[in-house]
Every structure is written in structure tokens, then in C-alpha cells.
Amino acid sequence: MTSADARDAGDAEAFPTVQLDLPVPTNVRVRTAEFVKSSVEISQCPKEGPPEFAVIGRSNVGKSSLINMLTGRKALAQVSKEPGKTQCINHFIINDSWYLVDMPGYGYAKRSKDQRREFDAFTKAYFKQRGTLAMVLLLVDGSIPPQPADLDYAAWLASAGVPFSIVFTKADKKKKGGPRALSNVAAFKRALLEARGFPLVPPSVVTSAATGDGKSELLAFVASLRGMWEAAKKRR
Ligand SMILES: Nc1nc2c(ncn2[C@@H]2O[C@H](COP(=O)(O)OP(=O)(O)OP(=O)(O)O)[C@@H](O)[C@H]2O)c(=O)[nH]1
Ligand SMILES: [Mg+2]
């Protein structure tokens, strides 16, 4: 363990974190993953049914890459060095029983203001209206210091009552900000608590689409949430 890792581990324990009472995960493994459809309007999205896990985050943060990493498919979701690649809500069905949903990123400077507003309104409406949305995975680049746009998005999700967890991406990349800077992951959590007034830090996983780090942890987390979803459905 490097000293930075040790500091991360120490900090991780120090943050008050939302504790979910999750069932033991079953059906963790991805056996099949298929593209279902792209939608530019909520009315075009597949009929509500299976639980959905939607991936959101700044343009270029690695949303599509994460979906490919989780499903073990190189090009299921389209990845690009150019930001703004994903322009629709894309549903992928996993094991014929749950959805991974790829979303257009926010904060892409080259889009016009109107276009940005349109994408933003569309994804936010989806988060508020979709009855089968189990969890939003908010992706945050772990290789750079906390960005206001990501903190703003987390604050919006919380204020709108949308359940979300944080997936830190690009853990393989060298951290920017100098050796004495707080680790980016810890700094982001601290900013949520201190600058944005969160009482607790949402659940989080550190990942790399390049190395596969965090893959089994995130799949197990999602499987537990599906277990919780199924149990809640039986009670309804
Ligand atoms: N080193 C490294 N690069 C990554 C990782 N994840 C994504 N990338 C790179 O980051 C760039 C953007 O990845 P995408 O998956 O297309 O990002 P996105 O969030 O879907 O972007 P938009 O669809 O434009 O919103 C690509 O060049 C990826 O190869 C990672 O974990 N590590
Ligand atoms: Mg994308």
C-alpha cells in the first residue's frame, strides 16, 4: 500500500457514509448484455419494468467506458476521446433482467447553451419521472480535484430526492494536484460534507475502466440493490 492509499483508506473510514442495509448479492455475474434502444424523449424509453441503473457524469468522465467494463464488452457503449459522444438515453439489458442506462454527459462546453439546457432538462426529467429507476450512478473523475459541476449535480440529485451513489473513475491515472493535496476521492467527499452541507456521504466505489479495478465491487453493489428492489416489489 502506498502512503497515498493509506491516506485514502484512513479518510474513507473518517467520513460519515450512508449505510444501506443490503441483502447478500446474488446473480452478480453479467452473462448477457444487449443494446435495447436509444431515446431522445422520455416517451420513447422502453416500457417500465426491470430496475434501472443510470450512469451520469460530466462529458468524458468515462460513463460509456464503465458500461463496457462492467459488461465485459469492448464496444457495447460508444466511447470517444471527443466529449459529447453519447447524445441519447441508451438502454442496455443485462441478463434479461435489469437495465444499465447510458446518458449524455453534462458540462460539454462545445454544445450550445440551448443544447446543454435541453440535454440537462431531459436527463433530469428522466431521473424524476422514471418509476423503475433503482439508482443513479454519478461518475466523478478521481484523477482530478473536485469540480463544481459535479458537486452541483450531486446537490441537485439530493435535493430532487433521486437515490444516487458515486463511482469514481480513472483510478489508474496519475492524480493531479500535487503530492500534498488531499486525495481527490477524499477531497470530493469532504467537499460534499463541508461545502455542500451533505449530512452523510453517499455510498461510493473507486473504479478504472482501464484496469478493471472496482468492477466486482460495483457489480456486487448493484446486485445487492437489485435484491433490495425485488424484496420491495414483493411488499408492494
Ligand atoms: N485512463 C483511463 N481512461 C478512461 C477511463 N474511462 C474512460 N477513459 C477514457 O476517457 C475518454 C472518455 O470516455 P467515455 O467512456 O466515452 O466517456 P463518457 O462519459 O461516456 O463521455 P460522453 O459520452 O461524451 O459524455 C475515452 O478516451 C476513454 O478511453 C479510465 O478508467 N481510465
Ligand atoms: Mg458516453
Automatic annotation (TrEMBL):
Q: Which UniProt keywords apply?
A: Cell cycle, Cell division, GTP-binding, Magnesium, Metal-binding, Nucleotide-binding, Septation
Which superkingdom is the protein from? Eukaryota
The portions of this protein that span the membrane are none
Which GO BP terms apply? cell division
The coiled-coil regions, if any, are none
Alphabetized CDD domains for the sequence: YihA_EngB
What cofactor does this protein call for?
Answer: Mg(2+)
In this protein, which residues make up the domain named EngB-type G? Answer: 49-228
| InterPro entries from the UniProt entry | G_ENGB_dom (IPR030393), GTP-bd (IPR006073), GTP-bd_ribosome_bio_YsxC (IPR019987), P-loop_NTPase (IPR027417)
Annotated signal sequence is none
* Family annotation (Pfam families): MMR_HSR1
Q: Which GO terms describe its molecular function?
A: GTP binding; metal ion binding
NCBIfam families from the UniProt entry: GTPase_YsxC
Q: Which family does it belong to?
A: Belongs to the TRAFAC class TrmE-Era-EngA-EngB-Septin-like GTPase superfamily. EngB GTPase family.
Name by which UniProt lists this protein: GTP-binding protein
Write the lineage as a comma-separated list. Eukaryota, Viridiplantae, Chlorophyta, core chlorophytes, Chlorophyceae
